[in-house]
Amino acid sequence: MSTHLRTALSLAAQGVPTLPLREGKVPFGNCPACAKNICGGRPNMKTPGPCICPRPCHGWAAAATDPNVVNAPTWVRAWREAAGVAYHPGGAGLTVVDLDNAEAIAWARASLPATRIVPTTRGEHWLYRGAMQSANAVRPGADIKSSMQYARWLGPGTGTITALPDAVQALIVKEPTTVRPVPVTVPAMGGECPHRTPTYLDRGIAMAEQRITEARDAVHATVYRTFLAVLSTHGRCGCLTEAHTARLFTAAQAKGESPRHCTDAWTNALTTLGLSHG
Q1: Which residue of 74, 128, 149, 181 lies most exposed, with the fewest beta carbons within 10 A?
Q2: At CB < 8 A and 24+ separation, what contacts does 206-211 make?
Q3: Three-state DSSP class for 234?
Q4: Number of C-alpha atoms within 13 angstroms, CB side, residue 207?
Q5: What angle do CA 259, 132, 116 make, to 5 degrees?
Q6: What is the pTM of this model?
Q7: How many CB atoms lie within 10 A of CB 43?
Q8: CA pair distance 8, 19, nearest whole angstrom
Q9: How far apart are CA 215 and CA 163, in angstroms?
């Protein structure tokens, strides 16, 4: 049994989802049956564990705690070739603050509560109890590795793990950006508004915001389809205001969409529905 496999089985026994890493600190690529995710991957790719194939496919989502999976023949072959062991911090209820240099470490010592520290090749991993959204480059030399991300296993570290502090969670909160929504220029069609109360419209906008926020991929397409759905329901009675549009644009920009992409998607939705004036 390889050293990496022994480490992985020990982690799995402690409830830490683990997977093999190849050279370059990256997971093994998907097998032919799973190449380019043609197998569909795991449902929503939100939880660790193997897909239907018996190999360690799908990166962090393959991380497993079942010893029968970790020690399966196809995994054993991967462990023989592995250059290291990784784990899914979020699946273990942990968050890793990955500090890449001395400056980042100095910042953490001055700004974050003391917790367990694991030395790395270039810096330190600070481990906290509690999972959160992962994010890269939250500040110079610092990444957050937790849900839907993997981290290298470099040993248990030293110190007592403390609860995930607000100071770490605040690192992924983006500064507000200036939102420039397209004014809704759809004329009212006349007659009584079919929505009757502002509550109906507000609920629709809130659902649209949630749909955009929860998009895991194809964000451009999701934003356009959401704008189209909002306008098809609320675009002809004159209820929509710039405040409503701003809420949708803010949600889209929080997912990485630029103001221009938001403007284009809104304009295209208006045109598709025959609501554009130009």
Answers
A1: 74
A2: 208/248, 208/251, 209/247, 209/248, 209/251
A3: helix
A4: 11
A5: 135
A6: 0.63
A7: 9
A8: 7
A9: 29
